């Protein structure tokens, strides 16, 4: 079943960093970029393919309109898995929930108080997403 994995958390908690780490893991695993959109250096979107399986990722998660647009692009590419960031509450959640034709999983972003703890949390969260994607494909 097609699945949206939404990394959920407050602003400035490492969601973008975690999704960037996940992309690196997917590339290392053999996924190839087929739709890179790096126009914005802080946030981006990519669609990756490996053995016929397509995964879409976007780091943008602050506005309903942006998440909705990015998920619709991923849907048009027939992504089996779509990864996005979203806030802990508000309209960004609605952008994910409205896709009733897909399984939707909200995964809370872990964090830490120190830079070292935040780095570890980001790496652990990226590993969790990678493991989940491997199970779903």
Q: Tell me what the CATH architecture is.
A: 3-Layer(aba) Sandwich
Q: How much of the residues is beta strand, in percent? A: 15-25%
Whole-number total of structural domains = 1
* Beta-strand segment tally: 6
Q: Which shape, going by the Cα principal axes?
A: globular
Average pLDDT confidence is: 93
In CATH terms, what is the fold-level topology?
Rossmann fold
Point out poorly predicted stretches: none
Q: What Rg is obtained from the alpha carbons, in whole angstroms?
A: 14 Å
Percent of residues in helices? 40-55%
Structural class: alpha/beta
How far apart the termini lie comes to 9 Å
Largest sheet: 6 strands, mixed
Q: Please work out how many helical segments DSSP would assign.
A: 4
The strand line-up of the biggest sheet is 2-3-4-5-1-6
The first-level CATH class is given as: Alpha Beta
What's a concise summary of this model?
With 137 residues, the chain is of the alpha/beta class. It has four helices and six strands.
């Amino acid at each position: 079943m097609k699945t949206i994995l939404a990394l959920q958390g407050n602003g400035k908690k490492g969601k973008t960093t975690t999704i960037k780490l996940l992309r690196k893991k997917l590339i290392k695993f053999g996924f190839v970029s087929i739709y890179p959109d790096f126009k914005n250096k802080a946030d981006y979107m990519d669609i990756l393919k490996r053995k016929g399986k397509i995964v879409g990722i976007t780091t943008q998660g602050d506005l309903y309109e942006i998440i909705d647009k990015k998920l619709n692009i991923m849907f048009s590419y027939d992504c089996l898995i779509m990864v996005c960031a979203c806030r802990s509450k508000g309209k960004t959640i609605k952008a994910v929930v409205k896709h009733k034709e897909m399984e939707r999983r909200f995964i809370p972003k872990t964090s830490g108080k120190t830079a070292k703890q935040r780095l570890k949390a980001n790496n652990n969260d990226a590993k969790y997403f990678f493991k989940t994607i491997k199970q779903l494909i």
